[in-house]
């Protein structure tokens, strides 16, 4: 059976954490900042954690990625 390929689109968007989770950039950060509070803008600039319900799916997509 051939090796599984890493999903390259997912590999560029998500990074694995030491405890097995995934971190990624937040949505809603490209434009229309005038409608957001300073607190929202500050918190959106940080990396966010992926929801635990999606971790199994993305682990499979990134199976060969480190």
The CATH architecture comes to: Irregular
Shape: elongated
Secondary-structure content class: alpha+beta
Beta-strand proportion = 5-15%
Protein name: Large ribosomal subunit protein bL35
Organism: Pediococcus argentinicus
InterPro entries: Ribosomal_bL35, Ribosomal_bL35-like, Ribosomal_bL35_CS, Ribosomal_bL35_sf
Keywords: Ribonucleoprotein, Ribosomal protein
Question: Would you kindly provide a brief summary of this structure?
Answer:
This protein has about 70 residues and is of the alpha+beta class. Helix content is about 30%, strand content about 10%.
Helix-strand layout with pairing:
Blueprint: H1 8-13, E1 15-16, E2 22-24, H2 38-44, E3 48-49, H3 55-61
Antiparallel strand pairs: 1-2, 2-3
Written overview of the protein:
- It comes from Pediococcus argentinicus.
- Belongs to the bacterial ribosomal protein bL35 family.
- Residues 1-44 are annotated as: Disordered.
- One of its GO terms (cellular component) is cytosolic large ribosomal subunit.
- One of its GO terms (molecular function) is structural constituent of ribosome.
- The chain is an alpha+beta fold and 66 residues long.
- The protein has a single domain (8-61), classed as Factor Xa Inhibitor.
- The chain is 30% helix and 11% strand.
- The chain has helices at residues 8-13, 38-44, 55-61, and strands at 15-16, 22-24, 48-49.
- It has a three-stranded antiparallel β-sheet with strand order 1-2-3.
- A hairpin with a 5-residue loop joins strand 1 (15-16) and strand 2 (22-24).
- It is elongated.
- The relative contact order is 0.28.
- The model has no long low-confidence stretch (mean pLDDT 90).
């Amino acid at each position: 059976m051939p090796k599984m390929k890493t999903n390259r689109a997912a590999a560029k968007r998500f990074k694995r954490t030491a405890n097995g989770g995934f971190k990624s950039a937040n949505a809603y950060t490209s434009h229309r900042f005038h409608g957001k509070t300073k607190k929202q803008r500050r918190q959106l600039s940080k990396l966010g954690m992926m929801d635990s319900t999606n971790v199994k799916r993305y682990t499979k997509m990134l199976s060969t990625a480190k």
